[in-house]
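Chain and conformation:
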Amino acid sequence: MKIRVLSWTAVERGEAEGADGIISIRPSAEHDAENLDLALAQATGGEVGAVLVQRFDDIAIPAFGPYRGPVIEHVAEALEFGRRISAQTPEGLLVVHCQMGVSRSAAMALALLAQELGPGAEEAAVAALLRGDPEGRMHPNSLLVSMADSCLFRYGRLVAALAGACPRYVKWRDHWREAALDPERHWEQARRIRTRRRTD
C-alpha cells in the first residue's frame, strides 16, 4: 500500500483523487469544511467507510490554551483503518491530510508506514516518509510519533529513527517538552506574541 501526505488545500485541489482511503485530520474546533468534504467524496468515489475523520490540534501535549492534542485512541483508530484499507487493496493508496501536511498527517503517515513495513524497518519507514518531503518542511508531531511507537511496540526505535533523520522534528519535540513543564506559562507567552503580531 502506498501512503501519501497532503495538506487540506491539496485535497481540495483534487490531489487525493483515486485514493482507496483517506484519513482527514482536522482541528478540534468546528471549521467550515464543505469544500473539503466534497473533495473527499469525489476522491474516493463516495465510497462509504473510505474516509476516517479525526479531530485534534497540532500540539504535542494534551492541552494548550483552547487547543486539544491527540490521544492514543486516535493512533489506534488510524492504524486499524490502515490495516483494513491494506487488506482490501494491498496495492492501493492511503492519503493522510491535515491543515498544512507537515506535522499531524506526517506523524500519522509515519505510524502507517511503520505498520506496513513491519518491526525492524523503522529507519526505512522514516526514509519513505521523508522522500515525500523534498523541501524538508515536515516535522511530525512528537506526541503522535511517541504514541505510534507504543501502539506498534517499537520500544523507542521509531522515535530514535526519526530523531536521527529529521532535525525539524527534534526542534519541535524539544519545544513541546519544554512547554509540557509549564503549559499555562507557555500558553500566555504564545498568546502575547500572537496579540503583538496582530497589532503590529
